Nicotinate phosphoribosyltransferase (Desulfofustis glycolicus DSM 9705), 1036 residues
Amino acid sequence: MIGDNREVLNHREPSWSLATDLYQLTMAQGYWASAMAERDSIFHMFYRTPPFGGRYVVAAGIEVFADWLSRHRFSEQDCAYLATVTGANERPLFTDEFLRYLAGWTFRGSIEAVAEGTLVFPHEPMVRVRAPLFDAQLIETTLLAIVNYQSLVATKASRIRLAAGRDEVLEFGLRRAHGLNGGLSASRAAYIGGIDATSNVLAGQQYGIPVRGTHAHSWIMAFADELTAFHAYCQVFPHNSVLLVDTYDSLDGVRHAIDAGRRLRERGEDLLGIRLDSGDLVYLAGQARKLLDDAGFQKTRIVASGDLDEQLIVSLKGQGAPIDIWGVGTKLATAFDEPALGGVYKLAAVTDKDGILGERMKLSDQASKASIPGCLDVVRLHDGSRCVGDIIFDSASEEEPGRDGTAQTIISPVDPRQHWTVPTADVSRTQLLQPLFVDGRRVAKESLLSDLRQRTLNGLTDFDRTILRFDNPHTYAAGLSARLHARRERMRENELAKIHRHKTNGYDGRRQSGERQR
Amino acid sequence: MIGDNREVLNHREPSWSLATDLYQLTMAQGYWASAMAERDSIFHMFYRTPPFGGRYVVAAGIEVFADWLSRHRFSEQDCAYLATVTGANERPLFTDEFLRYLAGWTFRGSIEAVAEGTLVFPHEPMVRVRAPLFDAQLIETTLLAIVNYQSLVATKASRIRLAAGRDEVLEFGLRRAHGLNGGLSASRAAYIGGIDATSNVLAGQQYGIPVRGTHAHSWIMAFADELTAFHAYCQVFPHNSVLLVDTYDSLDGVRHAIDAGRRLRERGEDLLGIRLDSGDLVYLAGQARKLLDDAGFQKTRIVASGDLDEQLIVSLKGQGAPIDIWGVGTKLATAFDEPALGGVYKLAAVTDKDGILGERMKLSDQASKASIPGCLDVVRLHDGSRCVGDIIFDSASEEEPGRDGTAQTIISPVDPRQHWTVPTADVSRTQLLQPLFVDGRRVAKESLLSDLRQRTLNGLTDFDRTILRFDNPHTYAAGLSARLHARRERMRENELAKIHRHKTNGYDGRRQSGERQR
């Protein structure tokens, strides 16, 4: 059996509709067979813990998910494969009727989401899906796979942007990214997060991201010596002359680059830059700058690369390294120090058989991990100079808090002992969730990637710098409205009381089962 | 400009030929314009440091790379995009003549590679490319992107396999993987590394990997209560009954699962398993086992999931947790504790203008990072019970070492003070590098994925367990033949002497440039 399907991948790209967990499909059949498929449901995607020791996440990947969803159909070939999937005893999992239904299905729900490039805080809904249970369930894995990863990389990129200040930053991570598509997603997300350009040509072609690159060590090694290699490169690319100097000895390389630069000047061109890729970058950049300046190449820029991340950039800048351009690869494209964002997708409400919407809450041994029931929205308050607070509220049961200008209490979703009071008079208000799909139809126009990037850059100035700090960042007033907090606490107590009743009544599963059968 | 090309991605998959770093294409034009494109060259892909504190890497991804390379062409659309790429002053980087050449080009070289599932040690060539410089350069980034990531995940999977012993292990990582293709690659590599099945349906369809899954917390929350949800699930899937018990309270959930199991037995089926996804897995698995056994469900298996990796599995097994099946996700699919393998691709030899092959070596401030020149092969020696040594040698200049049965000295590629002497009489010998492409044509048959997986499992028994150990693993005798070591040291000294001469002679770039112009 194994390997029978290889041909499909070799000869054309798969449909990607099966890029999901099997349990989404078993649940879909389950809902369908239990007459639950059409129950109206609300799910939220959110994260609990910000990555990299920070306070925020930069949302990304949402439009890529929307592209996927717009084309999401189960092909004949997909259904033919599903017909072969078995459970225990080699019996097929899926019925023919269900697969016929699945083949005709397309997504029918409505989705609100934050715009890519928005800074979001823990427990805030990034995506809200209101759809038949069947539809909402089937999109979970793909939504999480795309948005978790791209948001992670955009967040990392925003930190690198903060570290680099106004310096140019290039993304070089493809060779260590998680596959070709992982690399393409990384380039897109890194650009949204504030990086200036990428080495990934496909990202240039697909997304219009500026691409950069000159030569590798192998170019130098292919020639008889470094000087010959530099001259040859500048001969072919007089207007793309950033020379990698560390193949044999970095400062010797700088001297050779200066020589190549002199010849470029004879042609009316100039040496654009040198690149350092190993060694002590503070020492080498300082020495290289001196060599370049002494030789009259004050405008030649110094590019540094080699396992850089935001912490190292801060350190190098703090030590005064005269580096103009930063090349970041592995640490960005793999989000090396925390390579997964734990975004989750939780059911918050579902209708019963009479069509009444009932709220739902997942409990947990840790109270902080309990989900937030309801139909949630987030309003962000901005006092004209900075964002002052985000209020998560249940838009089905309460007005947008503070519309009347009264000060509002915001309560931490994790620890109710932490709360803030924010003024709501004289603030501008932004609803973070905006329509993406309405009744199965995509409504949001596709964005220019440069606009998404600009949103991130704006966000980085909209929040107090102490909140964006790398070490022990200050908290930001993001949490629940007082009404939502009270509803959630009541619901938690009710759910816990139910469990407690089971236990103290000497619960016997058989009896309860009997009761339900009556 | 940004966003102009979005349409391409929306309406069809890109060709993936541009999934490379821009500098590969600038170098290609450079070689072409400098009459260097046809120079015969040898490159090796290898890694320097094993991940996860271990001693080895499980090679994977090579056949996926071969699939890519077989179809690798620059389309008209690709070349049209490249014509728009600019350097400084907005001048185009690529010439029309070069792009016409590129559009007609296909890979012409020969490639030897280790079989997927082979355990490889630091500095051993995993892939050897012998091709015109132009061709060898153009494939670098894609080779590294695919093989680095898949080898990383296969290695992680092999460690999880070692930890789990004979227990079943499932891979659940798609929602945290680096994009959809990252998730597909992860499932493939995890299977090669020894995992038993995946939740990723696309991986099932594309590669024939067994798929598994039942239901999520949302299934439970969609019903009025947990017991109703379990009964409904078992009604639809009586032969796929693994019930997730921790939505509200894990042990309460086990009691409900037992109730559902009793109803399954009334139908002649049985409760296959319960899944624990949070809480203290030692305590909960112990209590769950007792509840199940007391209720007569001794055969019902306990599945555990939730941020598991090899270290946690060892710990849980060590504490006697009666867990039968392990679900691993994030920690495997992202290789969480070390999410990048630093595999590199280095030029080892190139012909000069007279067609004479000259060896090349990249030096470095760290002697251990210097590359190995020549045309390398690796022979693995097996004494009938265990592998006893790997010898890297230059097959262009020496016979396979130890063919005559004399004991061989193997010298560490990193520190020559470390060396081993291995007997070569009465051993079986395996050449690790095998032909993959000959003169641009793929020659290796595609493998069954189950055979690649079996190779890994065999490898895990072919090496002494102390070498595979997680903490402070024992060293394995993998290194250079005495002759190759001597050649490399001579070459290093020559190169260093060249640099030294430049410096002590008061090197002046201008003068040398003048000399070269004469």
Q: What stands out?
A: The first helix of chain B runs from residue 6 to 11.
